[in-house]
Design goal:
Blueprint (H helix, E strand, L loop, with lengths): L8 H19 L5 H14 L1 H30 L7
Helix pairs in contact: 1-2
Length: 84
């Protein structure tokens, strides 16, 4: 199931400003809003999936850790069976 990365307007505006600031600071190069939006769209389409996937892997690792802890907690609740 492939879906494109969608940002709301506030997120997009924030990231466009970050790109503009970065280009100004690192390259002493102005980057207009159109160019920054185009670059952001390119980055999202071309490399965004890698960051997205890493986020999924990280979330999965956290979930697996919590499931393991939950399993241990359930094990601790077990009552011993009476021996006859």
């Amino acid at each position: 199931m492939a879906t494109e990365i969608k940002l709301n307007e506030a997120q997009k505006t924030h990231l466009v400003r970050k790109l503009q600031d970065y280009f100004a600071r690192e390259f002493d190069q102005g980057l207009g809003r159109f160019e920054a939006e185009f670059l952001l769209d390119f980055l999202a389409a071309e490399i965004g999936a890698g960051f997205y996937n890493q986020g999924l892997y990280d979330a999965r690792a956290v979930l697996e850790k919590h499931v393991e802890e939950l399993g241990e907690a359930i094990y601790q609740l077990e009552k011993p069976l009476p021996l006859k």
